[in-house]
Design brief:
single chain, mainly alpha, 3 strands, binds zinc ion
């Protein structure tokens, strides 16, 4: 990334300014895509975006390149049109199979490392997932799962976190706020917490594998996608997990 500073006088050089702008634009566009405010398949006009976000074309192009590398936008065609990545069953299958494997590794590494204050945080986050406000509930859910990765090193936990965020895009698009499903998920979270508290890493791993893989199944068999597509990669990952 083009971030640099003048070492002699500490005055930021132009590339630093561009780098900061790129990061800001990247964060903002990423948030809009993950929250579904920029819809899957939506065409992005660089001219319009640079106006709306009040940035020049260079940091915008760089931010779009980062989003493309992350798989959130695609570009192509004679006019290098940039669109928000569409959601698809095959992408959902590979995304959730990767999540199943990585979250299982993360929890395996994390269970022995958890401390009393981690359990307290998880309990509080679980209470948070019951909140009526969907955004607060989603944030608490995110924090709960983040604790389950604290024992995993950077690359592994970062990748798992990124996949978690991408998976939220599917949850947002494919599920309604279903009370029965929420209840099932709450019970699964409680069982995961209990296994962690017992330091039973095998049980914790089995539970997180089911938690993730079963969500994929729910998403793939939601009414909107009949006839159902069976998640083949997820099934493999679940068996391996
Ligand atoms: Zn969960």
């Amino acid at each position: 990334m083009a971030i640099s500073a003048d070492a002699d006088d500490g005055v930021p050089s132009a590339p630093l300014a561009t780098g900061v702008a790129t990061q800001t634009v990247h964060n903002e566009l990423r948030r809009l895509i993950l929250e579904g405010k920029l819809a899957p398949g939506a065409e992005l006009s660089q001219l319009e975006l640079s106006r709306q976000l009040n940035v020049s074309r260079t940091p915008l192009r760089e931010a779009l390149r980062l989003l493309e590398r992350e798989g959130l936008v695609v570009s192509g065609g004679p006019h290098r049109l940039v669109t928000v990545s569409a959601l698809s069953m095959t992408d959902l299958d590979s995304l959730y199979s990767m999540r199943t494997m990585l979250e299982s590794l993360c929890i395996w590494l994390t269970v022995p490392a958890l401390r009393d204050d981690d359990f307290a945080r998880m309990e509080e986050d679980l209470r948070g997932t019951h909140l009526k406000d969907p955004q607060l509930s989603q944030e608490a859910h995110r924090r709960f799962h983040a604790v389950l990765r604290v024992g995993a090193e950077g690359r592994l936990s970062e990748q798992a976190e990124r996949l978690f965020e991408h998976a939220e895009r599917y949850q947002l698009a494919y599920t309604r706020r279903d009370v029965t499903l929420l209840d099932v998920k709450h019970k699964e979270h409680e069982a995961i917490l209990e296994a962690c508290r017992q330091r039973d890493r095998e049980q914790a791993r089995d539970l997180i594998v089911d938690h993730v893989a079963d969500t994929a199944m729910v998403l793939m068999t939601s009414e909107r996608h009949a006839p159902f597509v069976l998640p083949t990669a997820v099934k493999m990952a679940k068996a391996a997990g």
